[in-house]
Amino acid sequence: MSTENETAEGGRRHLSGWSAKISRLVLGAIPVIGAFFIMDTPSYLGMAILREQYYGLFFALIFMSLFWLFPASSKSPQNHIPWYDHILALSSLVSGLYIAFYYPDILRTLGNMSSERIFMGAMTVLLVLEGIRRTGGPLLFCVGIFFLLYARFTDYAPGLFNAPATPWPDLVTFLYLDANALFGTTLGVAAVVVMSFILFGNILFAIGGGAFLSDLAMAAFGRYRGGPAKMAILASCFFGMLTGSAAANVASTGVFTIPLMKRVGYPAHIAGAVEAVASTGGALTPPIMGAAAFVIAEFTGLPYATVAIASIIPAILYYLGVFIQVDLEAGKAGMKGLPKEELPKLRQTMNRAYLFLIPLCAMIFALFILNMAPDKSAFIGIAAALVAALFNKETRSSAGWIINSLEDTGRSMIAMTAIVCMAGFVIGVINLCGLGFVLPMFLSDVAGDNLFLVLCIVAGASIILGMGMPTVAVYILLGVLMAPSLVSLGVPLLAAHLFIQYFGTVSQFTPPICVASYAAAAIAKAPPLTTAMSAMRIGILAYPTPFLFVYSQAFFMEGPALEIIWAFLSAALGCLMLGCALVGYFVRPVPVWKRILSVPAALLLLTATDFSNPVSGLIQDGSGLVLALFILISEYMAKSRTQHL
After folding, report:
1. What is the 3-state secondary structure (H, E, C) of 488-527?
2. Number of other residues whose CB lies within 10 A of the CB of residue 346
3. pLDDT, tens digit, for every residue of 201-238?
4. To which H or E segment does residue 140 belong?
5. Distance (Å, rounded) from C-alpha 219 to C-alpha 230?
6. 449 vs 640: which has the higher pLDDT
7. Is the peptide bond before 512 cis (omega within 30 degrees of 0)?
């Protein structure tokens, strides 16, 4: 598995010889060293090592690998490392090791300015900017430059954004050394929580957990109409929940689900779109959400269980909307399921369930029963996976899969860490210049008291900033930039963070830069933009859902049970009506005028009832329910009349 973004400029280098061996060694060392620190091994050995010292070593190894593996441009050498990238890799090593060795002394003399610290700070800022240019693309590079220039020339900014400027020496030193900048919370989340779960996912798939999920999905849905599409939804949901990487999921599951969807009758662009949307949704699905659930808990200070429970209904609605559309598409085209003899036997498939269930249950037990930290719980799951691997003859006979999993984990962390480091700079600038107070005031001035308009602005900005980024890194960046502004304007804390998480994530299939849609289109051999537009239609529930839970806590499973049940059932019926409108089919092709009527029916049902005003709530839901029942019942009756003719 890998992150969505291999490189923004050229392809990732394919090294050979000693360069490849050293690079693989460094990549494999990243999770090994991480495990050493995450499991508190230094304290058991009587060693006093600060977390920032580990972050420094992590930074050194990641950025060394970045400059070795990611060329400066498509014209740079692709099969060997040029001299200038060796210099950048060595500079990264020096920068990180400086923190690893000297951070305790730095803490004691943090206010002291020296030419050495200024030089190291300036070098590190430039390294991060070049790293983000190579892995994140020009948009994120420009975002980083903008915040640096803003901090330096704040005194020229207009109105609310005007503040005393920070000289370059002070700025680069602050961003490099202060705990509220580069080596702060964001890098810590990546180096501890995210890496733990990426390693857990890689180990789980290496021992056969991924193959079990795929076969289970085929056995469960393969025989029904549109079975391969439904199979793709289930498999990709589980894959994405564990990995958080939409493009990696498309590459993993799409290679067999997309051809199967095409075989039973789905057009190529629809097959690609279904896979892209299903793969993206895994990062929104509890209990793991591709590690995002733990990162959100870290950022908000809320218990992890609160985040996971709140995400249940939104995730169900997301996949329900997708499932309904693929089923209606199958009915419209008269598709059949796959032949029974081509499907794996459910009993034989369940014989391998231990490869998936033992590690997952061990992790959940450590998390909820033993109350261990998420990162440590992930390593308990990894230990359980290693034990389960002993009962699988394919993994018992060789340890090569362990080495490959370690390397894949290190490789997967490169692009994400570059983005997270830039997010650290953004946090530093926000703290330095007081932007945390200014941005909410600015949004309030632009939108006035119209919260809906503010949400639309933040949603659009989240999609733009999230394009092409790994999903967890998307949340970290947006959690820094956008969520505090929403909270200050009255949006509940968890709703604000999940709102930006949703819109940052759906950028994976939203054009123009939609890595999941384009990856699926390549496998499906379909036009990329057509596939992306179809993905927007199939995943349409992802766009209104965040607005629903901002305005109603019932979608977070908060409040009276009756209100929660009614909100969910009403929204579920709204999903069906929206599917009828978009696909144009229920039990038969739906006439155009009924498709048009299905849209207001869906909107009325999706919008949560205001239980504080029973009269308006009854009118709203009653109108939607009557309209929906009229359309559905009349279509059933029309179908019956046709069959009797």
Report:
1. HCCCCHHHHHHHHHHHHHHCCCCCCCCHHHHHHHHHHCCC
2. 13
3. 889 889 988 888 888 888 888 888 888 888 888 888 88
4. helix 138-152
5. 11
6. 640
7. yes
- The CA–CA distances, whole Å, from 75 to 71, 136, 185, 585 equal 8, 18, 36, 50
pLDDT of amino acid 512: 78
If one counts every other C-beta atom within 10 angstroms of the C-beta of residue 392, the result is: 14
Q: What is the DSSP letter of 266?
A: -
**Residue with the two structure tokens 């990426």:** 198
Locus of tokens 């499991």: 39
Plot region of 246 (φ>0 → left; ψ -120 to 50 → alpha; else → beta): alpha
Instruction: With beta carbons less than 8 A apart as the criterion, state whether 264 and 337 touch.
Output: yes
Q: Is 129 left (phi over 0), alpha (psi -120 to 50) or beta?
A: alpha
Single-letter amino acid code for the residue at 541: L
Using CA atoms, how far apart are residues 555 and 502, in angstroms rounded to an integer?
14
| 10: alpha, beta or left? (left if phi > 0; alpha if psi -120 to 50) | beta
Q: Which residue has the higher pLDDT, 253 or 132?
A: 132
Is 402 within 8 Å of 390 (Cβ atoms)? no
Confidence (pTM): 0.81
* β-bridge partners, 589: 585
C-alpha neighbours within 13 Å on the C-beta side of residue 155:
5
Residue for token pair 């990641």? 62
User: What string of DSSP letters covers 434-483?
Assistant: THHHHHHHHHHHHHTT-HHHHHHHHHHHHHHHHTTS-HHHHHHHHHHHTH
Amino acid at 363: M
Partners of residue 585 on adjacent β-strands: 589
Question: In which residue are the tokens 């299903």 written?
Answer: 278
Cβ(237)–Cβ(197) below 8 Å = no
Residue recorded with tokens 């999905």: 217
On whether the CB atoms of residues 427 and 186 are closer than 8 A, the answer is yes
DSSP 364-396: HIIIIIS---HHHHHHHHHHHHHHHHTT-HHHH
Pairwise CA distance, residues 615 & 497, whole Å: 32
Nearest to 254 by CA among 271, 237, 234, 230: 271
* Pair of tokens at residue 223: 């025989």
